[in-house]
């Protein structure tokens, strides 16, 4: 399946036709943001921007899309418009890899309303998923400390979504992936070990290990739990490690994929060390997540490499980020969506977001949202609580939304996954630990400028009356 | 991203190279099966087969894949092999859309071990995900009874996995999708309504409704909760419905996307009926799943159409099916994978699975697994409990695994999603209700032939000694 402009919800095209007939030149500003941090985490890692920009630059309806829409009853004049469709708008965005928070714009699209509407689904589809997985990966990295992290989830991923999961995992802090296609296209490190089937295809395990070590001696990892981990697999691995030493080679590691990983890794470490194989690493896998890894670390399990699959690439248990795309301006006028739930009321206007840094270079713990035309602000107010406000005049303020696409062309240079991952780590290093803990992380504040708050409240009152 | 043979785990290629050097002509049989029904459901709906067959028929490594693997250090002779790689094996499978159960083969691959290994990841990736989503859709269909079900999850799906989610949802019982691309390629019905942004782009809601109804009068659904559902949205929708009547048109429906859907749908139904608009349907959405729909039905909420998004396309809360691919024969010899957990011991041999039907044409509640060469069997034994066996001699037995691909070519005609969905419904109609309930569904039995059980136990004992 190629991503074309038909990679969208039908209602986008239906609404587009109405706009085409009734107000073809409407100019819209849409905000992308989410409402709740995934996994009850203290932050999210914004990911997917480069893919969105790449796709948008060449987005078209294919001939087959046009035939399909004709068959759906769309009219010829509108179909002619769609044949020539391209996205010609502007995008202002947070940097990919930055830490982001709920209820503040992460990205703003400014475009003809037809174009802005048609790209909505694609944009949400790519950004919601990659942000979810990069955030999960970031939590796993936090647990695993300096251990090596390997993504091996493709077989349990949501079909071709697994391709994007491997990219997002790298941004969130994984060292490598088993996913060849993603590694090839995104220039991510790729690694792999061996499967049980490899060993089963031999009459005995030792022969399997020997063949593997002979043909693939470099980074060789032997899977030792097919029949009996400590009584059979480990002794066979030690035999092969010694045979490799005789040839001047070194066994990279052994892998445990079942049983109690804390117990087995300690036993295996002791046996390997007693055999003078302290350089042989211990690789583990089997339904790992950030909590299992945290527990293994707390038990001082001597594990060098964690292979994480299902829980990483599916973003369990949340499995989705609740990102939305809301109209905030139309033809220069501010727009708002009301809700019974005050948290769900959207923020009107084209906006800028400022992040404050303290004297030590750490994030102050607050992003302030202002109307774009206001420029820098001195005071930040709580979005609803009228008793809460903070003087931010003395703090260093960084504007977070930068122009990344103009007239449908990207205007920032392409960044590699490695560059994005490094930027993400540098930003996380500025975030105090209290926002990173898993249990009730400290709440990073999102405030509004006084002007934005007043104008929003005026709009609410106007609609309520 | 195009799916090529590099859409796999690196270890498959590493193992392939070892096989290529040491035993290039090994012949393997692999079983695809899963271990636990998703969502604690009583069954799963098998989906994804047609996609797998289509992809396998033309699977190749691209030039860029070969360059990448060269750069990864794979040797020239093996790279030459990969350049000419195609899948030339056979596949025997359950029919797509059938109801399936844990711990029995759903599909068997018989091929050169290199080919069988390289396709493992792709096969698991497509089948695990689509089976998960078709099963979720089936549960939602069970709750919703005869109501119309609309998939609208693309924006929260796992990137391009959403394309396959829409296909699987249709197989599991959904009537239509918002996903234009999937509808176009898989010939699924597509539908859509309107977004809040459409209404927000107008100075008032009534103008928005009027423009929409004028341009798109067919299947017109008005979203009534942007500002105030009962005080503003519904009265405006009624004005437009009456204006449409004057032109000989009929408003299809109104949509509720927030608030208490039971309360609001009853109020809206009464108000519409009082305005002589009993034909106007009520469409609802907002974080629906099988449990919310069941509750709405129990409250007699007069809802005609349920739009389901996130919980459907992400397969929440499970988010993954634990499907595996295990070697069961190598060069004609049975193979087994042991485990500390007896449930995880694999079944050796090339096999056939039989489903028993009772005199009323209902499924008897048991599938029996036998060695392929045994032919039909008279007795089925519990896999582990030596006290349990069933005489099945008098029951009608249907062999479930049919040859679908031979020498790398599909030998069954392509089936449309609609045909597969209809087949699935016909199979579900044969399954007694006690296997369909959500709370502790009755356990559908999986038994072994006496010969398979004895041979498996002999293999376990051989490896243990």
Compact description:
Chains A, B: Catalyzes the first step in the biosynthesis of NAD from nicotinic acid, the ATP-dependent synthesis of beta-nicotinate D-ribonucleotide from nicotinate and 5-phospho-D-ribose 1-phosphate. The structure is a homodimer of 465-residue chains. Chain A is of the alpha/beta class and 465 residues long.
Structural features, described:
2 copies of one chain form a homodimer. In chain A, helix 3 packs antiparallel against helix 4, helix 6 runs parallel beside helix 13 and helix 10 runs parallel beside helix 11. The longest helix of chain A is centred in the N-terminal third of the chain and has 25 residues. Chain A has 465 residues and is an alpha/beta fold. The first copy, chain A, is globular, with a radius of gyration of 26 Å. In chain A, helix 12 links the parallel strand 9 and strand 10. Chain A has a domain of 271 residues: nicotinate phosphoribosyltransferase. The first copy, chain A, has 16 helices and 21 strands. The first copy, chain A, has a 7-stranded antiparallel sheet. At the A-B interface, helix 1, helix 3, helix 6, helix 7 and helix 8 of A face helix 1, helix 3, helix 6, helix 7 and helix 8 of B.
